[in-house]
Request: fold
Amino acid sequence: MKRASLHRLAWLGVVLALVGPLTAQAGEGHDHGDAPAAPSANGPQRQPDGSVFLPKPAQRQLGVRTMVAAEAELPRSVELNGKVLMDPNAGGKVQPLNAGRIEPGPRGLPNPGQVVRKGEVLAYVTPSTAPIERSNQSAQLAELRAAKSLADKRVTRLKELSDTVPRKDIEAAESEAASLAERMAAVGGGLATREALVAPVSGVIASAHVVAGQVVDARELLFEIIDPSRLRIEALAFEPSLAANVGSATLAVGDQRVPLEYLGAARSLREQALPLGFRAQGAALNSLAVGQPVRVFVQTKQKVKGIAVPVASLMKNPANQTVVWVKTAPERFEPRSITTEALDGVNVAVTSGLKAGDRIATQGATLINQVR
Reply:
């Protein structure tokens, strides 16, 4: 009996020795309740060195896109404050020649933004005259009617006596009657006619300053018409020497870049600045309005060595330094402090802080910068 018990105990010891090492390890996907869990690194995290760990799924969700930095000789640029003006060859102003009262045109009074054609009647101006002037014109018209009636009767009598009256007397009487008729038409037209305000060019009504029945003065601005795809840009340069150093210029309209044609510079200062004129064309100009302030980027003939980077890539760090996010590993982004110069409004020239071959975050950089 003792020998059987000892035999069973020996076998139990062997089983426990074999099972013990197996139960000490957790199965896949499980862990012991007493063992501490490993720190999770599945989501975006800011690392102690300032870099950001951003997994691939998070990059796709945030729409992160990168570009490879390429060093090149870029034109040194200057940013100027500008203003949108009307192109004098593609726009016009409507002003009355006489004072009077406004009356709607065939299509009514035009509204701002309405498309009009050259020669289209926009409104009428009924001339306003003083009562004494109108009465004098009426009296003159009555005198002309009486003289015309007598002239017609004289012509009739002379024609009846054509056998005894010289032909020249008859022609003189007819000429006098015709002259009186034209004078009557001129005086009567001055009393009844109205001035038609027509569009000088085809385009869009930029501004309208009239309502029906309004009394306006001569030379008062009533309508402005522009071609929104053809505008002038005027920029102010505080360095007059820049006028002789303009290579090219661009205008930033949202995320689009509109090339400008340099027309020339004025020869007189305005508020201690020299006005520079540019011509702009393109569909992107439809979002601009006359008088709107804009930023003009003038590329000079001088060159600077740098890397062109989109403006959307530029961020600010806690120290208020300009940084870009560089992808140093498939799931790691590192901030780089840089110095920049203006380029064309859409891109900037990075002169230090980057090297050729760096992968720069161009889309989603704002979201990367917010990871904490």
